[in-house]
C-alpha cells in the first residue's frame, strides 16, 4: 500500500465497516470499508446533514480544503458535513489496500455501489433518514445524481457540479486512453507491478490530464504563472506529475472503469429517463463553462432527463480543473448556488 | 521505408529536388525532395496557380480527395492546383525515406522550411512569381500563414482553415503527449525501432486523437454510425487505429516537433505581430466552430495580429476532424468562403 493514501496526507479520516459487501454486479467486496471525514455537528433534529462525495483521483481531503469552511455555503457551524471517499479511491476499500482482493483481483465497482455504501454509512453510523444535500463534483456529481435515483427523496437536494449521472461515449474514450496507457506499460504485469515500473505511464497520465482538464485558454495564457510555476515544464513536472504520479495505477483503473460504466439507469433496465422519473430531490446541475470533459451541452442534455432539474452555469476560464478553485470568482459562484439551493424549502 | 507512404496509397505524386537544402536552423537536409501533385493547367498568364498544403499525418492525397474537383471552389478546370507535402510527411524527405538522415538522424524541420521548399518548388518547377491562393488546414494553415509573412505578396490570398501560424502552449502540450507516448515505447530504441514494436504506442496515439480531434458531441451522438461503423470499438479499431497505425513514428515525431515550434515570428525575432505586419496577402482565417485543437477563440486572437485579416467561422459538429468533410454542409461552407476570397480583386 502506497504511503500516498495515508492519514498524514488525506486525513484525519475514519473507516466504517460494511463487512462483506454485495455489489450491484452480484460480486462481493470482502471486508469492505468506507473512509469518511466529518465536519460540524449533527443537530438534535438530524436535519442538517450534508453528504459530500469525491471525484476521480480525489479524496475527501481536497473537498474539505476547497469547499468546506466558515464563509462557504457548506459551513460546519451550520451543517453536519459527512465526506465520503469512493470505493477504489485508495482510502475506502481499493485495489491498493484490500487484503483479500488487492490489485487486479479487485472486483469492478460501480457508482451504485458507492451510493449503497454511502447509504449504509449515513444510516448505520449516524442514524440518518434523510440528507439536506448531497453534493459532489465530476465523478462525485455522478454519485450525487445516482443518490437521487437510487434513494428517492433521501437526499432533499442534490447538487451535481461538473458532472453527469450516465457516461456517454466521449468519456468512455477518455477512460480507454487511461486504461491503454496504464495497462500497456511493460511492467504492468496484470496489475502486479512494482511501483517504480509505473512511473512512465503515470507521467503520461498526468500529461494527458493536462490537456484534458485545463482548457486551451488556461494553458495559452500561462495559467500556471498565478499558481506559482515559472514555466510550462515546471507546471507539468511539479504540479501535474507531482499530483498524479504518486497515485496507484490499479486504483486509477478501478475508478476509471467505474466512470465508464456510470449509468443512473442501472436501476431501471438501463433507462436513465425512467430512473430519473423516480427523483424526488431538488436537483441542481452546475456545469463549468469552459469544461471539456463535461461540456455545458452535455449537462443540459442530462438536466432535460430529470424532472424539475435546474442548471446554473459556473463561469470559469480554467476548464474542468476549475474544480480546484484557482479562480477568485469561482467559490463565490459555488457558494451562491449551494446557498440558494439549501435555502429552498422542501 | 513503410509501404504506407507509397505511390499506390498516396500518388500519383512527383518529386522536386532541392539538393542539399539549408534549413532555417542552419542545419542541412541532404538530398532533399519535395513531393507534390498537380491538378488542372497553368494558364499562359501564369495567374491561376493555387498552392495547397498538408496537415499533421496527412498527405496531398486526402487534400485532393476532399477539397479539389469540379463543383468545388478549387476546380481544376479553372485553377492550376499544386499540392505540396510537408517535410516529414513520409512523401517529401522524411525520417522514413531519407537515405542520409533517416530515423532519429533527421534534423528538426520548421514550417519556415516547408514554405521555403514550397517556394523553391513553385518558382523552379513552374516559373511562378505569384500564387492566386495558398490554402491549407490545421498544420497546413500554419504553412499558409507562414507564406504570408515569409514571402509578402507572393500569395495574393491566404486561406487558413482550422489552424494558426504560431503555436501556443496548449498545442505544445498536445505535442508532448504524442512525443511521450511514442518515444517511451519499450522498442523505440532512440528511433531505430522495428515497426512491429510501435504497434502499441501508435494505437495509443490513435486513441488520443479520437479524444482530441472529434468533439464530445460527435462521439456522444455516435457520429461513427453515419460513417458506417457499427460500434465505438469498431470505429476505434477500423477507422482511427486503421488510419493512424500504419504511419511511421519518426515521421509523426518530425511533424509534431515542427508543430510545437511553429512561429511566424521566426522571421522577426520571435515577434509574430511584427512578422504579420509584413503581410500583403488577403488573409482569411476559417476556424471550425467545434474545434478543440484550434478553438475559434484562438483563431480570433491570431486574426487580430494580422492587418486586414478576416475570419469566417465554419459551422461544424464534428470537431477538428470536420476537416475530413464528413458533414454534408461542410464543403458548401468551405467552397463559399474560398470562392468569395478567390473572387476578390487584388
From TrEMBL, chains A, B:
Keywords: Hydrolase, Plasmid. GO terms for molecular function: acyltransferase activity, transferring groups other than amino-acyl groups; hydrolase activity. InterPro entries: AB_hydrolase_1, AB_hydrolase_fold, HAT_MetX-like. Transmembrane segments: none annotated. The active site is at residues 138, 291, 320. NCBIfam families: PRK07581.1 (NF005757). This is Alpha/beta fold hydrolase.
Amino acid at each position: 500500500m502506497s504511503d500516498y493514501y495515508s492519514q498524514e496526507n488525506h486525513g484525519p479520516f475514519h473507516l466504517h465497516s460494511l463487512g462483506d459487501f454485495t455489489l450491484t454486479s452480484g460480486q462481493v467486496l470482502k471486508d469492505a470499508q468506507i473512509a469518511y471525514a466529518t465536519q460540524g455537528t449533527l443537530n438534535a433534529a438530524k436535519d442538517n446533514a450534508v453528504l459530500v462525495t469525491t471525484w476521480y483521483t480525489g479524496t475527501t481531503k481536497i473537498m474539505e480544503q476547497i469547499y468546506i469552511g466558515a464563509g462557504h455555503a457548506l459551513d460546519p457551524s451550520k451543517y453536519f458535513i459527512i465526506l465520503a471517499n469512493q470505493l477504489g479511491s485508495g482510502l475506502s476499500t481499493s485495489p491498493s489496500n484490500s487484503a483479500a482482493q488487492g490489485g487486479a483481483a479487485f472486483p469492478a465497482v460501480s457508482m451504485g455501489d458507492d451510493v449503497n455504501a454511502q447509504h449504509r454509512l449515513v444510516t448505520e453510523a449516524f442514524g440518518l433518514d434523510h440528507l439536506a444535500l448531497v453534493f459532489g463534483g465530476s465523478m462525485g456529481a455522478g454519485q450525487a445524481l445516482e443518490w437521487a435515483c437510487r434513494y428517492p427523496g433521501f437526499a432533499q437536494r442534490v447538487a451535481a457540479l461538473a458532472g453527469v449521472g450516465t457516461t456517454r461515449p466521449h468519456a468512455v474514450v477518455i477512460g480507454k486512453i487511461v486504461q491503454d496507457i496504464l495497462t500497456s506499460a511493460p511492467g504492468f504485469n496484470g496489475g502486479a507491478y512494482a511501483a517504480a515500473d509505473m512511473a512512465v505511464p503515470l507521467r503520461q497520465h498526468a500529461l494527458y490530464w493536462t490537456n484534458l482538464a485545463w482548457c486551451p485558454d488556461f494553458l495559452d495564457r500561462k495559467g500556471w504563472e498565478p499558481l506559482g510555476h515559472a514555466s510550462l515544464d515546471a507546471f507539468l513536472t511539479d504540479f501535474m506529475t507531482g499530483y498524479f504520479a504518486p497515485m496507484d495505477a490499479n486504483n486509477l483503473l478501478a475508478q476509471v472503469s467505474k466512470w465508464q460504466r456510470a449509468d443512473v439507469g442501472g436501476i431501471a433496465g438501463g433507462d436513465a429517463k425512467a430512473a430519473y422519473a423516480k427523483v424526488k430531490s431538488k436537483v441542481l446541475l452546475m456545469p463549468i463553462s469552459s469544461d471539456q470533459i463535461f461540456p455545458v451541452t452535455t449537462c443540459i442534455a442530462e438536466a432535460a432527463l430529470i424532472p424539475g432539474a435546474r442548471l446554473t452555469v459556473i463561469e470559469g476560464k480554467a476548464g474542468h480543473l476549475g474544480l480546484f478553485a484557482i479562480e477568485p470568482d469561482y467559490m463565490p459562484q459555488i457558494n451562491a448556488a449551494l446557498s440558494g439551493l439549501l435555502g429552498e424549502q422542501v
